[in-house]
Fold these 3 entries.
Entry 1:
Amino acid sequence: MPIQTFANRVSKNENLTYEQMLQASELMFNDETPKDEIADFLIALKLKGETAEEVAALATVMKSYALPLDLPEGNYLDNCGTGGDGLKTFNISTTSAFVLAANGVSVVKHGNRKISSASGSSDVLQALGIHTNFTISDSIELFNQEGITFLYAPNVHPKLKRIGEVRRSIGKPTIFNMVGPLTNPANLTTQLVGINRPDFVRDYAEVLHILGRKRAVVVSGTQGMDEASLDQENTLALLENGDIHSFTVDMQTLGLTPAPITALRGGNPDENAVILRDLLNGKHSAYFDAVLLNSSLALFAYGKVESIQEGVDLARESILSGKALAKLEAVIQYSQDILKERTLQ
């Protein structure tokens, strides 16, 4: 069945079943499927609005094509946003990853270069001196040494190159933004995901349940920000052992200063790297509070703390003590050592 058949159904506002979306997804990864037809299908899905079953099916197929990651069984967390909110905030989840690792959270962070933002996770890491050319064994060794690793999506998803060309031609968020956080090659048990659709938060938690997560937090901030924002506009859901609960957070109760979304805007990768370093050096700002909040949600999802307040306090201590900055420096050193080894070979 050609992908146009599925595009036609979606164009008529028909939702695809899980099995139909599996078929359509396989066609998207087939090199024989014309790229313009894939683009038509993705645009039609976006206009209709993706469903939980469609997102779960695409994530299942996409992960099946990922290179295997030989990590032992364990409690692994990824913290990332779907991207695509167009708000050009700085790299909150990437900064938070160092805070989490400094607190003993096993972080396997899956990211990419910018597609619909000013600076993707991999862009800011590169600006910090952490290259994106890790082999799978490099990534595993980094994790074994530091309890944190970064997986550059094109390195672990070889089938994504062609899809990436299609996404760039569209230039707007697609369902692939929604599935990116779901296709980490590690067998994640827990996750913090920010999405750009407040109306889809509970559905996304259901997708995480379908895909086997034991515990997770899903958040959508102001104007669909794909992180928790510093106001009362966050939509949050907790997945715990199959049950999904909505909850709220109050900035002032947590000791955080409310701030508009404009206060969280970043710039290009070099500018965001400066923000990240200043923050981990203890510079207080809206950026600092945003990282405290998002780190606390991840600590809570991981089960490291029993409350969001406890998570905020733990995140603050790990920054002010220098532990989070030390973790960043250790990862940079590992990256630079790999580059030197390759130069000498």
Note: Residues 263 and 286 are 6 Å apart (CA to CA).
Entry 2:
Amino acid sequence: MMNKKVENVAKAMIDLKNGDTLMLGGFGLCGIPENAISELVRLGVKDLTCISNNAGVDDFGLGLLLHKKQIKKMISSYVGENDEFERQMLSGELDVELIPQGTLAERCRAAQAGFPVIFTPAGYGTEVAEGKETREFDGKMNVMEYAFKADFAFVKAWKGDEAGNLIFKGTARNFNPNMCGAAKITVAEVEELVPLGTLDPNQIHIPGIFIQRIFQGKNYEKRIEQRTVRSRS
């Protein structure tokens, strides 16, 4: 079986360039590819189109790229925790495409499976459907949405092996699995990289065929976006 392991995040992103379209896994700040985002900041690549459920917060996640003006277009579902995102969108500095969350997930999954389009009732009769083909199925109107086309998908998993087989943990199993194999190159960063044959095949969520590069991540902060707790009695 092919060994997909690369030495570090820099080697995993060696051919990334200005103007690329990127998929980035995660839900809020949970399960985001922290190492990949940090490397994007270090590289200073510009004019990126980012496909992600969220845009991070002002000082973490994709918010770091927004502050450096590295993102040209943001394709997202939820962007309510980022003041800089709001400022750039309202000023016209940032092109924004807002998508229903389920539609975002399915457009990723369609790209993963090789389907050119999907039909969904979400957004019919709203601004989301303007200029798009619609069809009726079983008495219900649906909007045609194209599968995403991306240069890179960056995902984060709990554990993986050198062949790229991945196991996700908890809520980090969000948009990450759908983005695996949905781009020309999928790069996985993992908290623990183990030798081939170590993982239980019955526990694998994504097989290595969907992954082109995998590396051992480090220094994960795993921030909580909104901490809501009861006061002690």
Note: The chain has one domain: 9-118+149-216.
Entry 3:
Amino acid sequence: MTFSVSRVQWEQAAPLLKIIRERVFVCERRIPKQVEFDRRDHHATHILVCDDYSQEPIATGRIFSTGEISRIAVIPSFRKHKVDKLILNALLIIAKEHNLNEVFIYSPLDAVQHFRDNNFIPSGAVFMEAGMPKQRVVCSLEDITDTKVYLSH
């Protein structure tokens, strides 16, 4: 399988990004819509991944100029293809373009080990958000050298 990874702005791609996030966060994880779709989307750079065969939008993630990465979502049937790694690499490329020193994620507690496996380290105490335990994980961009993904505009 092959995928197209694109940098998009909310204003142009909101309908496609919403399809993915509603399916993953609202339906699957039961996060209230008003929590999932915050006013911050307009201030982020988003990644949209589409399946090259079906042209279906299958994954997304966003990054802010502060280095905060969030809303990484992959449609369940594509998770076995490690599409989340494509998203993370694309977001790290954007962070480097913005000359950031580090990025961080408020990770669900059950995903902290996944991010540890991708050069992030836990930072701070566990806290609750939208009824879900989370922990901040941080990654120094100096430690990242393997960001192999073609990022189209």
Note: The chain is about 30% helix and 35% strand.
